[in-house]
Structure formats: structure tokens, C-alpha cells
Amino acid sequence: MTAFLRNTWRGLTSMRTALVLLFLLALAALPGALLPQRSLNLRATQQFIEANGWWGEFLDRVQAFDVYASVWFSSIYLLLSVSIIGCLIPRTAEYYRALRAKPVITPRNLARLPHHDTAETDRTPDEVVKAATGLLRGWRVTERTEDGGARTVSAEKGYLRETGNLVFHFAMLGLIVALAVGKMINYEGQVIVLANGSQFCNAGTLGYDSFRPGLRVDGTNLTPFCVRVNSFQADYLPSGQADQFTADIDYQSGHDLETGTWRPYDLRVNEPLRTEGDRVYLLGHGYAPIFTVTFPNGEVRTQTIQWRPVDELTLLSEGATKFDPPGVTDPEQRRQRQLAVTGLFAPTQIVHGGVLSSSFPDLTDPGVAVDVMRGDLGIDSGRGQSIFEIDQSLVDSGRLTRVARENLDLGEEIALDDGTRVKFDGVERWVSLQVSHDPAQVWVLGFAVLMLLGLGVSLTIKRRRLWVRASPGPDGRTVVSVGGLARTDQAGYGEEFGRIASALRSGRD
């Protein structure tokens, strides 16, 4: 049993196993890129499962829609970490011993080495050794005296190659750990904010439209800051293609929250606001039509609710603005008299055969095509529902009926059968913001840079050895033998060896 465990450990901590596990990790990550992930888009995941029947259910059972939190992905991740640690510890210990050891003794027959040279000189062995050590500045050099009076020099260079190799692998281990820590303590949320001075504060998960926490985040200790969206400016090309988006915002964080100080910032796509370790991105924008309902009793209510784009090029949008009847306390009557204004909004309207569409994304000639629905909206059922649409099952069951359909220009209104008037009063812009918190990103960047530096060092530096033997000759002259050995197959050592051997033959220092 002990032998089995020892062999298993040796196999796991071999570099070959680490490379295999790294390949398996990349392979295991493919479903996360090819399939919708539940943590990113729950709706798309559910639609995929329903559309693919038993195959979708099978993928769900094997956690293909939760790849990065799956048991099998985590197992490969953990085994890779253990394998790299098991590889690096003995290699580091061996490298430390090699750094402390003296260069190996000079081989008996230098002529057998790939690079060798022999010459005679009138200098004494001591003078040859002194000249050799002068030529080998920057090398690890050890001088020795052999039997018979011969003097030798053993030199090694290129130890930084192994340093770069170790730096690369330790940085890769650090990158793996940093990514894992980031998944535990990061969070990401999206929120839509009206661009009319409305504010968003990062005080809790309830302020977000969607929120994706890390494994160790419960949403109770978010980084405190506030953002106020004053206005939004969109620039378009004549073709309708977006040129630039800019949100004029103010923000406060840290000590500014105590003093009430607001700081201005122009938020643009790919130019996030960075504050208190968090990043605020501008993701998108759209329109929120304003509807005013005047009820038969004279009470007026106005709602400004964002509608979602259904055409990204022209920003034709759909939505549902919902109203509760005023002064109705009886639950049954209340459910019968709720109103919803649904339909399409066009920033630059164009009508063909009574069908509304949009020809340009900018707000030049706004119009809406609305269906006014009356009845039970289901907002008292205790179940969550989309702000962009009504529950179609309530329409199918007859609990929600259409009482009017009309195309409206800005300022126009519809009169319902009970005297209620619905007016298209105006339009506001909204922006979609994403807040990202990942303290580990700096470490990820640092380890990635170290990986590149370590890889560059290990690929460019050559590990090589050189020996010089100066032996007294029978005629009183000194025989100088030089041998060299490259520890890698990289070219270039022959030229360096030739320069050193030539300098020793000619007597240059």
C-alpha cells in the first residue's frame, strides 16, 4: 500500500502529469464558453434546456451549465495545483543545492566534449588561470590544482535559465490560486439607472437588477459608493451606427460619503470608473417612455419605466408600464382595475400600414404603439415578474383584457371606456451600469506578467559550462586545453567558446 501511494504521488507530481492536467483544464473550460451558464444568464439556460429535451436535461445533470462551479472542473483545478506544487518543491530544493555547489571538476579528456581546443603558450599555468578567470567574469568559477601541477578552471553560466523556469511555474501556480480566490470574493452586478439625476448606491443586492456573488459573498458587506447619472449623450453616424456614448455622472466614495461631496466623471464604454477597488462600466442604454394616467376620479399618476431594445440598430423597444388604481381598497376590485400600457416605442418613428417601426436610434421623432390592458396584472400574487412584459397566462385566462390599441405621438392620449385617459407624456434615457469587484485582479495581472518574464528568461538564456586546464609541457611550455558543454541545444555557444579559446591562445585578457 505504501509503495502504491508513493508511486501515485510521484506520478501526480511529475511535470508530464501537470501538463496533461493543464490540457484537461483547458478542455473542461470549453463547455463554459459554448453553453449558456446559469450564473450568467438563467433565462437563456432554461430556454436551452427546454429546447433540447433529454439532451439538455443530461447536460444539466452533469453540471455543464455550471462549469466553473462543477465537481469535475474543481477536481481538475485542485489536482493541477497539487501537481504543480509537488513538481516545484523538489525542483526548487535541487536548484538551491546546485547554486551552493561548486562547478564540477574538469573532465580528464576535454577533447571528447562537443567544443574543445588545445594550444601551447609560453605563459605559466598560474598566468593562464589568471587570464582565464579574467575572461570569465560573470561566470561561476572555481580553481583547482591537479596531481602533477596542472591548474584547472571550472566555470558555469546560465543559472538564470532555471530561475526563469521556476518563476514561470510559481507564477502559474499563483495565477491559479489568484483566480480561485477571485471567484470566492468577487461580485458583479448590473443595474439600469434613469439618466435624469437618478442615483444608484452600492449598499446591498436589492439595489441591483441582477447580481452574481462570489462563493464567499453574501451581499451584506459591499464596497460603499454612490453614482448619480445626470445625463447621457449618444453620437451616431448617418447610417445609425453608434459612434460614441458618454454618461455624465457624479460619484462619491470613501470620505466623500461622509462629507456629501460629489465628484464628476465622464463614463464611456471601455473607460470604467474606478473607485474604492470597484469598477463601474457603461454597458448600454435605452429609452423609458413617460405615461400619465388620469383616472375617472381625477387622480393623476405618472410612471417612467425603462423599456428594453428589441433592435440594437434602431433601438426599437418593448415594455410594460403598470399602474394600480387609486383609492381602491377592496382586493377583488383592485385586481379587476389594474392597468398596463404595453407595446413598442420608436425613437424615430416610421409607420407602414399602421405598424410602428424605428428608422434611427436617436431621439428625433418619438412614437409609441400601445395596447392598454386592464384587469389582474398578477402583481399581488407574491411571485416575481418581469418589468418589461405582462404575464401572458393572465391574458389567455381572460383575467387581463385589452381595452385600447393606438399609435401615439408625443403629447397624445387615449380615452378608455370608463373615462380613464392615458397620455404619452415624454421620454427619458436610461443607462445600464455594471459594477465589478475583484480584488484579486491585480494579483492575476502581476502573476501573468511574471509568467511572461520567466518564460522569456528561460527561452533566451543558455546554460553552459567551460573548463580550462593548464599543464606544464615536456619542453617547458604550457599546454592549454579548453572544453565546453552547452546544457541545451540552443545555437550560439560555439561562437562564445571560440572567442574565449582564441583569447587564451593569443594571451589576451
Automatic annotation (TrEMBL):
Q: Which keywords appear in this protein's UniProt record, sorted alphabetically?
A: Cytochrome c-type biogenesis, Membrane, Transmembrane, Transmembrane helix
**GO terms for biological process, alphabetical:** cytochrome complex assembly
Coiled coil ranges (UniProt) are none
Where does the record place it? Membrane
InterPro entries tied to this protein: Cyt_c_bgen_Ccs1/CcsB/ResB (IPR023494), ResB-like_domain (IPR007816)
Query: Is Membrane among the key words of this record?
Result: yes
Primary location group: membrane
The answer to whether the entry has keyword Cell wall biogenesis/degradation is no
Q: Membrane-spanning residues where?
A: 67-89, 166-185, 442-461
What's the protein's topology in the membrane? Multi-pass membrane protein
Q: Which ranges carry the ResB-like domain?
A: 15-497
What PANTHER family has UniProt attached to this entry? CYTOCHROME C BIOGENESIS PROTEIN CCS1, CHLOROPLASTIC
Name listed for the protein in its UniProt record:
Cytochrome c biogenesis protein
Annotated organism of origin: Actinokineospora fastidiosa
